[in-house]
C-alpha cells in the first residue's frame, strides 16, 4: 500500500458518495483509473444503479485504460444482471491492477469478482481505506446481510431536548445553516421517514429544497390507521414525488382506496402491541430496495426505533435555547428502569453549524 493508493482510493470514495440516495438498491460505488501518475477515468454509480462506476470510468479512459490501475470502492461485480459483470469489463479493457477495500458481501459476488480478475492475470490489492469504505457502503451491507436499510435518526432540539413548546410551536428551534445541512443529509438518503403524528401536526413536504436538487428521496410515513391529511402536502404531491405509507392491518378501506387514488404506495406491516412494528417496517423497506433511511421523528416513532435497537446512527442538532419540562420531548417513553438497558451510542463527530451544534453518534454494535 502506497500513499498514492490511499490518495486515489479516497478520491474514489468521494466520487462514490455522489451516488448515495440515487442508486438504490445498488451500492454507491466510485472508481478512479490511473495510468502512471495521471487520472484517465473517473466514475460513480449512476441514478437507478446503472451504469456502474467501473463502466463510467472505463468509458472516460478509453484506450488509456490498458495497463492502468483501477481504484474501486467495492469488489467489482461478477454476475450478469441488467449489464455484464464489471470484472469482465475491466479485463476486456486491459486493466493491469485493481485496488479495492474488500469483498462484496452479496452472495452473487463475494470473492468471485476478485477471482475473475486474478484468473485473467490482473493484480488485486485489498484493504485500502477499508473502514471508510465500510462506512460508505453501510446501507448496502445492512440490506444484503440483515434485509433492512441503514437507519439514521435525526433530532433537532433545544438544549434541554425538546422539539416544540407545550403548544406545539417548533419553527424554528435551530437556525438556517442547520436546516440547510439537514436538506443535504436528506439528499444522501434513499428515503425520509416520519411518524403519523408528525405528518398530522406539521404537514411536512419532506423534500430536499434550496440546493438545486432535481432528485427527491422517497417520503415514508408510518401510520397504523392511515389517518393522515388527505389535503396535506404529502397527499397533494404523491403523484409527483413517491409517498410510501407503512400501515397496520386494521385500516379503513375507504382511506386505503383514497391514498391509493392519490398515488401513494401502501405497505402493510405487522403490529407490535398497539403500534406498527418498527422491525416489520424496516424489513418491508429493505424488501422494496431501500438501503439508507433518514428518520426525522416524531417522538413516538423515535422511541420505538430506539427500543427495538434499529437506529444505526444518531444525528442531533442542538440549539442554545431552553423550552422547559412542559415542552414536547424529542423521544417518547422507552420504559427503562435501569441505565444499563438504555441504548448507547459512540460520538463520531461534532461541530458548530451556525449558532447550533451538530453531533453524530453511531451505535456501539454498528
From TrEMBL:
Pathway: Cofactor biosynthesis; riboflavin biosynthesis; 5-amino-6-(D-ribitylamino)uracil from GTP: step 3/4; Cofactor biosynthesis; riboflavin biosynthesis; 5-amino-6-(D-ribitylamino)uracil from GTP: step 2/4. Signal peptide: none annotated. Substrate binds at residues 170, 186, 206, 209, 296. Pfam families: dCMP_cyt_deam_1 (PF00383), RibD_C (PF01872). Its EC number is 3.5.4.26, 1.1.1.193. SUPFAM superfamilies: Cytidine deaminase-like (SSF53927), Dihydrofolate reductase-like (SSF53597). InterPro entries: APOBEC/CMP_deaminase_Zn-bd, CMP_dCMP_dom, Cytidine_deaminase-like, DHFR-like_dom_sf, Eubact_RibD, RibD_C, RibDG_C, Riboflavin_Biosynth_HTPR. Zn(2+) binds at residues 52, 77, 86. The active site is at residue 54. Converts 2,5-diamino-6-(ribosylamino)-4(3h)-pyrimidinone 5'-phosphate into 5-amino-6-(ribosylamino)-2,4(1h,3h)-pyrimidinedione 5'-phosphate. In the N-terminal section; belongs to the cytidine and deoxycytidylate deaminase family. In the C-terminal section; belongs to the HTP reductase family. This is Riboflavin biosynthesis protein RibD. It comes from Primorskyibacter sedentarius. The lineage of its organism: Bacteria, Pseudomonadati, Pseudomonadota, Alphaproteobacteria, Rhodobacterales.
Amino acid at each position: 500500500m502506497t500513499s498514492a493508493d490511499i490518495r486515489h482510493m479516497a478520491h474514489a470514495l468521494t466520487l462514490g458518495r455522489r451516488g448515495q440516495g440515487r442508486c438504490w438498491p445498488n451500492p454507491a460505488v466510485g472508481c478512479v483509473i490511473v495510468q502512471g501518475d495521471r487520472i484517465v477515468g473517473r466514475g460513480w454509480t449512476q441514478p437507478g444503479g446503472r451504469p456502474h462506476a467501473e463502466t463510467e470510468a472505463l468509458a472516460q479512459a478509453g484506450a488509456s485504460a490498458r495497463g492502468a490501475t483501477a481504484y474501486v470502492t467495492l469488489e467489482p461485480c461478477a454476475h450478469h444482471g441488467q449489464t455484464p459483470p464489471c470484472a469482465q469489463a475491466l479485463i476486456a479493457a486491459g486493466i493491469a491492477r485493481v485496488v479495492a477495500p474488500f469483498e462484496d458481501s452479496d452472495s452473487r459476488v463475494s470473492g468471485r469478482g476478485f477471482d475473475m480478475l486474478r484468473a485473467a492475470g490482473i493484480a488485486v490489492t485489498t484493504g485500502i481505506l477499508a473502514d471508510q469504505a465500510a462506512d460508505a457502503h453501510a446501507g448496502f451491507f445492512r440490506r444484503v446481510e440483515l434485509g433492512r436499510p441503514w437507519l439514521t435518526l435525526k433530532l433537532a432540539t433545544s438544549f434541554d431536548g425538546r422539539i416544540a413548546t407545550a403548544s406545539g410551536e417548533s419553527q424554528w428551534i435551530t437556525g438556517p445553516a442547520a436546516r440547510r445541512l439537514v436538506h443535504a443529509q436528506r439528499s444522501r438518503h434513499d428515503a425520509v421517514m416520519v411518524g403519523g403524528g408528525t405528518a398530522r401536526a406539521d404537514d411536512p413536504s419532506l423534500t430536499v429544497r434550496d440546493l438545486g436538487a432535481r432528485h427527491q428521496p422517497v417520503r415514508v410515513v408510518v401510520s397504523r390507521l392511515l389517518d393522515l391529511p388527505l389535503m396535506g402536502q404529502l397527499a397533494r404531491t404523491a403523484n409527483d414525488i413517491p409517498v410510501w405509507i407503512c400501515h397496520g392491518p386494521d385500516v379503513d378501506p375507504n382511506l386505503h382506496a383514497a391514498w391509493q387514488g392519490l398515488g401513494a404506495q401502501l405497505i402493510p406491516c405487522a403490529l407490535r402491541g398497539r403500534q406498527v412494528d418498527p422491525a416489520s417496517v424496516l424489513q418491508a423497506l429493505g424488501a422494496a430496495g431501500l438501503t439508507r433511511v433518514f428518520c426525522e421523528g416524531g417522538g413516538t416513532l423515535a422511541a420505538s426505533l430506539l427500543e427495538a435497537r434499529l437506529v444505526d446512527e444518531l444525528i442531533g442538532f442542538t440549539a442554545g435555547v431552553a423550552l422547559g419540562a412542559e415542552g414536547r420531548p424529542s423521544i417518547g417513553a422507552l420504559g427503562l428502569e435501569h441505565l444499563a438497558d438504555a441504548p448507547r451510542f459512540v460520538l463520531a463527530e461534532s461541530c458548530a453549524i451556525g449558532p447550533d451544534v451538530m453531533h453524530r453518534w453511531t451505535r456501539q454494535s454498528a
